[in-house]
Amino acid sequence: MKTLNIKKQKTALVCGAGGFIGSHLVRKLKKEGFWVRGVDLKKPEFSKTEVDEFVVADLREQSVCKKILDRAFDEVYQLAADMGGAGYIFTGEHDADVMHNSATINLNISYYGQKAGIKKIFYSSSACIYPAYNQLEANNPNCSEASAYPAEPDSEYGWEKLFSERLYLSFMRNYGLNVRIARFHNIFGPEGTWRGGREKAPAAMSRKVAETKNGGTIEIWGDGKQTRSFLYIDECLEGVRRLMNSDFTGPVNIGSDEMIAINDLAKMAMEIAGKKINIKHIKGPLGVRGRNSDNHLIKAKLGWAPSASLKEGMKKTYLWIEQQVEKSANKKTK
Ligand code: NAD
Fold this sequence. Notes:
Blueprint: E1 11-15, H1 20-31, E2 35-40, E3 53-56, H2 62-68, E4 75-78, H3 86-89, H4 95-116, E5 121-126, H5 156-175, E6 179-184, E7 187-188, H6 201-211, E8 217-221, E9 227-228, E10 231-232, H7 233-244, E11 252-254, E12 260-261, H8 262-273, E13 278-282, H9 296-302, H10 310-333
Parallel strand pairs: 1-2, 1-4, 2-3, 4-5, 5-6, 6-11, 7-10, 8-13
Antiparallel strand pairs: 9-12
Helix pairs in contact: 4-5, 6-8, 6-10, 8-10
This protein binds nicotinamide-adenine-dinucleotide.
């Protein structure tokens, strides 16, 4: 007798599917053959979602989380958070919302996820959990995973991420929830927020350069000597999928170790645009002085680490933002 060999389609739930990383992740999961349910307060802004089912809902509501976790999903990706770049996180104006909104989402998803018997869950933590005292100098920050404690994140956003890492790890210890945690370091790329106050440095620099004529001037917060590293979206997702397919729980850094000063990031955008623009330094929210991804652990555990150059990713991002700037200018003149 012939035995039936019907391969069951894997199921995934993506929380935050309307956001930057979530919408790119959905595309990747669909390519890999998953059936995907996406949940978010809003649908993706820049392209049509590819999910099988999109639920527009608020994950702070327990009733919503109970409903969307109605089956034992093979994989759950918890990316939903109240977040933004330095202009959103470091002014202090959004601290209560950031902590309350994101913590409530994570409390709900961990609890109802475990109840639903989900097979595996990914949680996106952040480089913002690392202690400020290890990032006081631009050129030698320490962001190795083991350096997270004693904790002293530079923002309430970072404290909430650290709390939620511990929350998921507690569910793993006490209820056997199968958890994977990554600490993302500044992910960027096309279809990311590029204006409005929540954008990150690569998008902000690209927008400023795209909006400014040759010989003009752009503003940069601080002296521009603060350093960061930035990871292109495709490599971020490659890291996420590799972590999910491994036995390693984490937390592990998913970031680039190509550190750059913000002044040089602006110059990179100018070079891509073929423009010469002056920089004016002004007061603004800054965060730590230096930050870079330490990739020793990811190499040891996954045998892989991001390797693409920042410039490659910046070219693709700049071109996409330039198009958005042109579209928006055309709308205004109509
Ligand atoms: P994003 O803001 O584009 O996406 C987050 C999504 O969560 C948004 O679409 C938002 O609408 C949704 N959301 C917020 N509150 C919600 C609620 N109550 N109910 C339902 N949906 C809600 O951000 P992103 O860049 O795609 O980041 C995804 C995750 O990765 C976040 O958890 C973020 O903290 C983390 N992270 C991102 C970066 C980065 O550089 N982008 C760095 C470190 C960590």
